[in-house]
What does this fold into?
Amino acid sequence: MSGEDADAPDAFARAAEPPLPLEGLDGRLTAAERSRLDPLHLRIVEASLFASAEPIEARALAARLPVGADLPRVLRALAEDYAGRGVNLRRVGDAWAFRTAPDVAAALAGAARPSRKLSRAAVETLAIVAYHQPATRAEIEAIRGVSTSRGTFETLLEAGFIRLRGRRKAPGRPVTFGTTPGFLDHFGLEQASDLPGLAEMKAAGLLDARLPPGLDMPAPLDDDALREDEEPLGEGDAFGPFTAEALEGSDDRDEREPD
It folds into this structure.
């Protein structure tokens, strides 16, 4: 990797045009099923999604509809209606949003508000969290081979890309990190398992084709449920760890070996 600041890798952002049916929704609507849809329900969900800058969870959408409304069928109809348009209905974790269709995104690149660039250290840290979550700071540093500064973690937290999951059941009870729905939304992913695997990265030229034999990469998972070796955060943990023990002993620089 170069020592200059870099945008988050394009490999994260690759997203094919959403197939139909979308994950979480059944097959295409029949003419009879569509005829039973209330047009008002379609308009309410459509307007809600367009008016929100952030993905909206299904339960929040359902709360805006009359009792008995069939939200899954409404979402199926909207997914079909927008499949060939400039914006598509996309699933982001347990939420839904309208997002620019991948095949026209390049044409709008100049009109998009420039996002804050992530440093090399932040990109590396984010990639490790995405592929190895839940991961502790010590585990992240072991993979990177260098210490990771407080500022790197704070940048990713402020960007909404990572979150504090829990604490590892190990000496010192270190905080574990995971990705967020904001991470999925930013990179056009439905779930962390949509991240490219080892074979895809090699095919795209992002990894040296002569990798060590037996090298493997875990399948990314972003399940909210704590693992057997994790325990819940205590009261105040949502903010405390980064001003206390989670970053104790770190400075404001990433120590790197010479390139």
Notes: Confidence is low (pLDDT under 50) at residues 1-18, 248-252.
